[in-house]
Amino acid sequence: MLPSQPQQQQQQQYSLINQAAQLMQTPPPTSPWINPFFSPMMNQRVVCTQCKNVQDVFVPPTPLSSDPNTLDESFVFLSDFNSPTASIMDTFQSNSKSIERIEEINYMIDELLENGENLDSILHQQSLCGACLKDLFEELSKREDLLKRECDGFEKMLKEKKLPSKEALESNANKYKQEMDKLRNEEFEEREKILLFHTDRQCRLGRKAMNLQNEINAQQETEKGYWKAYFEYLDNMQNVSEDNRRIQLRSSKKKFNPAKLFSIHENPSRIMMINGLRMGTLRTEQVSWDEINAGWGLCALLITMIAQKLSKFKFSKYKITPKGSHTTVKELESGEKYDLFYSSIRNLNSFNQGMKSFLFCLKELISYAAKAIPSCMELSKNVHIDDDKISERSIIYSDQKENEWTGSLRMVMVSLKFLQKNVLT
After folding, report:
1. Coiled coil where (predicted)?
2. Digit-coded pLDDT (tens) for 346-405
3. Distance (Å, rounded) from C-alpha 110 to C-alpha 390?
């Protein structure tokens, strides 16, 4: 069994204290040539390492040895002895300073024990006066007594304590071994049970997951069937709706009367109106350009429908494109477009040219209708169109000629109403 740390410290203290005891019990040196009492040549004035007093001391030439025969070369002696037969203990009683020196001695002893050094090495490294040496040995003696009492108490405690015998120790070891084997067997059985439980649980979960997956697959197949039936239903509904739309279109074509799409009449101010939109303006009745532009879009749509009704007729010079309030007239040869609406003074020339082109198309339509339909002969005789004039009224717009422009628009609307009545019906 290895010694514990307190026991090692005790052994170090024992060794140190034994060295001090040997020093205290050693007789004075016997060699006259190295004895400080008989050899003053070895004395030196040095400072004590602990108390800092300056005295004549004998410095040993060699380190302190544990051999009693060589201890005469290792002591530090003071030079203030009056007699060579004076004892070392008498020397210790001189130059006692204070408690501070004792504290320094205690610190030196503690450092010596902590570093594990020998007493001879510490004495060789330091120069001590007699008082310091006395304090050193007294402290070492106290510690030796204290250490002896601790060792005696420790030995007494060991004797009082009953240690188990070897047979009892072996019996306890066997008992513990049997318990460990039993616990290992129980652990192995529990592990087997846990493994069996996990295996069974995984099997049950696997079967349950497989059943759930089969149900999901069946539901997905059913859902696919539902979606297929749904899309087929949508296709059938779309086909049915298309058939219904075709039937409705056929029935509407039979019942459709283009003549009823447009209503042309004169208001009390003698301004012609188409579907409630006034065509023209007077000083006494100002009409906005938005209303007039929308009316021009209806006139363009009406003349186009009349031209389409006459299947063999086509405009020779212009093409009218109805676009509501932004209707245009395109010249076929040059491809130039004219506005049939007024927005600002910047497009006034284009607007006038568009109305002039519309008047030219109306003249062509009246001439063809008079030849194709006998009832239209009366219209060609009563309405005369020459360049930008219709029945001697110019269709060119200006602020000074609003009444004349409104009168020309009146004649245009009368001609369109006559053609609607005789061609579309």
Report:
1. 166-193
2. 999 999 999 999 999 999 999 999 999 988 888 988 999 998 999 999 999 998 899 999
3. 141
Using an 8 Å Cβ cutoff, are 49 and 26 in contact?
A: no
396-413 as b/e: b if 16+ CB within 10 A: bbeeeebebbbbbbbbbb
Cross-sheet strand order for the sheet of 77-78: 43-47, 54-58, 77-78
Cα–Cα distance measured from residue 342 to residue 326, given in angstroms and rounded to the nearest whole number = 9
Give the C-alpha separation, 364 to 376, whole Å.
13
E strands, 258-340, in order:
264-266, 272-274, 277-279, 318-321, 328-331, 337-339
Residue with structure tokens 């186009």? 304
* Residue count (the chain): 425
Cα torsion through 268, 269, 272, 276, rounded to 10: -60
67-89 pLDDT, tens per residue?
Answer: 444 444 334 434 443 433 334 44
Which residues 6+ apart lie within 8 Å of 246 measured at CB? Answer: none
Contact 366, 381 (CB under 8 A): no
113 within 8 A of 13, measured Cβ to Cβ: yes
State pTM to two decimals.
0.44
Q: For helices 5-25 and 99-115, what crossing angle results, to 10°?
A: 120
Give the C-alpha separation, 66 to 23, whole Å: 9
Measured CA to CA, the distance from residue 77 to residue 113 in angstroms comes to: 25
